[in-house]
Design a protein that fits this description.
This protein is mainly α and 134 residues long. It has one domain. 51% of the residues lie in helices and 4% in strands. The radius of gyration is 16 Å and the shape is globular.
Length: 134
């Protein structure tokens, strides 16, 4: 939130959303996953981008909500929210064209690609571009 505010953006943080429903979805409990995910869909109605810090949650919303809600009253809303959902580093680099945040960290770090971010969202270069400029 502080990064977006520093860049001059207004944040509307939805505290009511606790989970995207992925744990239940991955365990095969699609009905339970829908109960959780419908709360996100209803809470995040609108046109604004939805930015999440987790590649797993972003992949769930973008790639799996359409399947989860296929042939349900929320099918169209699931597709719409998927189109507006972005992983954090991808949103900064690909949509805001931000690669420099003025950050400092006087140590060496190792970056591990999250599986869902890398495989489902093809997020690889974006976090590296941000880290290269620290």
């Amino acid at each position: 939130m502080r990064i977006f505010e520093k860049l001059g953006h207004t944040i509307d943080f939805k505290r009511d959303i606790l989970c995207c429903g992925q744990p239940a979805f991955n365990a095969g409990f699609w009905n339970e996953s829908r109960e959780i995910a419908v709360r996100a869909i209803e809470t995040l109605k609108g046109d604004d981008p939805v930015v999440v810090p987790s590649g797993s949650c972003a992949a769930m919303v973008k790639n799996f909500y359409p399947d989860l809600f296929r042939s349900t009253p929320h099918a169209d809303a699931a597709v719409q929210i998927g189109r507006r959902t972005f992983e954090f580093s991808s949103f900064l680099v690909d949509h805001l064209h931000v690669t420099e945040l003025g950050s400092r960290f006087p140590a060496t770090v190792t970056f591990h690609d999250g599986c869902h971010g890398l495989r489902e969202l093809q997020v690889k270069r974006q976090p590296r571009l941000l880290l290269e400029r620290v």
